[in-house]
Structure formats: C-alpha cells, structure tokens
TrEMBL record, chain B:
Residues 7-31 form the UPF0033 domain. Belongs to the sulfur carrier protein TusA family. GO terms for molecular function: transferase activity. It comes from Rossellomorea aquimaris. SUPFAM superfamilies: SirA-like. Pfam families: TusA. It comes from the Bacteria. InterPro entries: TusA-like, TusA-like_sf. This is Sulfurtransferase TusA family protein. Keywords: Transferase.
Length: 159, 75
C-alpha cells in the first residue's frame, strides 16, 4: 500500500451544525483520497443513533440520558439560534434552497466513501448507549485506536 | 476544449462538487480529460487545490453566466 494521507476527526459535539461541518470536511477529505476516520465521543455519539426506539435494558440514569438526548442525526439541535427546535427547521429549509446536503445524507455519503465511523465505547457507557441503538456497521474503539490513526495523521480536528 | 467525459455538478453545494469530481475521474483513463461544470462559488479554489493535491492537472477554466467550467487531465 502507498502511504495514503489521513484525516482524523474527533466529533465531540452533538450539535447539528457542528456535526455537519465535521461530515463535510470528512467527505471532502475522502475526495482528496485521504483515509478518513470520525471518532464519535460524548454528544457526538448522538449523530450515530438510530431514529427508531430500540428496546434495550437500561438502568434509571441510562434511561434518563437516553430519553433526553436526540435520537439520530436528523434530531440534533443547533449550537446557536436553536429556538426550541425552530432553528433546525429553518436552517433545513435554507439548506434545501441552496442544495446543501442534510446531515443524514452526509453520513450516508461518508459511508459510501468508506469513511471509518467509530463510536467511543467508554462514553457510550457513560451515556448509557448500547450498540443496538447505534447505526449498523460502525466500529467500536477507545483512545488508543484513535491515537494509532491520528499519530501519523495529516489533518487532525476536534469538533 | 474536447473532453472525454463531462460532469454536470451545477447547483450542488460543498462538498459535492469535489466528491462527484473524484468519482468521475475514477471512471476515465490517465491522460484523458474531464470537464466539470459547477455553480459553486468556491469551486475555483477547491478544484485547483484538489487537482494539485491528488496529482491531476487543471488545464483550463472558464466562467460564463455563473457557471464555472474546468478541464482536468487525469494524472
């Protein structure tokens, strides 16, 4: 294998706009022939949640977290001007007008481009998220796996 | 300029022009020319940088009525 360049993004935020930026950069980097990894931790994990309710056994705190956190990419709120959920509706309208790709489509595109989507297992435990609740065909790892990708990385971002 | 393949990426927003360009260039042979048409205002900087970084050659570009056209030779 030739020494391909790599882009490694830590997606910490669960805001729609920030996740969108992360996925736009990731898709651009894949088009640049980079090997791309997005490491989802803390609120960033919510972008990987399935939209439908998945019945899993949970403790009290896990249930609280699960209920309060957005279920999937389309449900994320905006970091600014969220206006109790009106903001995302407004911005999605504007995005449509300008032909910008909605976040769920950007995630589909990322998978099509073989971008590695990784869920941080430690923060999954903290937030009470189970594998069954996240999208299929993603990887599960911790900090060492991220560092292995990142230490020789050409682009490293924390979003 | 004569192109071996034409990509219509008009109306598409970032990052789709370069994602589509990369897909299209994979479908032609080295030395062949891809014509890309876009309306994205950032496309000029984007495609210039992309071609340089991925080993292709931006032969020429043209702007007419908000449509940018690029000719890229596959490296």
């Amino acid at each position: 294998m030739s020494e391909r360049k790599t882009t490694n993004i830590i997606l910490f935020s669960g805001d729609y706009d920030k996740a969108m930026a992360a996925y736009i950069i990731a898709n651009g980097a894949a088009a640049y022939d980079h090997d791309v990894t997005i490491f989802h931790t803390f609120w960033g994990l919510n972008a990987l949640r399935k939209e439908e309710m998945v019945p899993v056994k949970k403790g009290f705190m896990e249930k609280m977290f699960g209920g309060m956190m957005p279920r999937g990419a389309d449900k994320l709120g905006l970091s600014n001007m969220n206006f109790m959920g009106m903001g995302p509706k407004m911005i999605k309208g504007v995005m449509k007008k300008h032909n910008a790709m909605p976040l769920p489509d950007l995630i589909d595109m990322a998978r099509e481009q073989d971008i590695k989507l990784v869920a941080c297992t430690m923060t999954m435990d903290l937030l009470g998220l189970h594998k069954d609740e996240l999208l299929e065909e993603i990887e599960y790892a911790g900090v060492a796996a991220y560092l292995a990708d990142a230490e020789n990385g050409n682009v490293n971002l924390f979003i | 300029m004569k192109a071996d393949k034409v990509l219509d990426a008009k109306g598409l927003a970032c990052p789709m022009p370069i994602v589509k360009t990369r897909k299209a260039i994979k479908e032609i042979e080295a030395g062949q020319i891809l014509e890309v048409q876009t309306t994205d205002k950032g496309a000029k900087s984007d495609l210039t940088a992309w071609a340089k970084s991925t080993g292709h050659e931006l032969l020429d570009s043209n702007e007419e009525k908000d449509v940018f056209t690029f000719w890229i030779k596959k490296g």
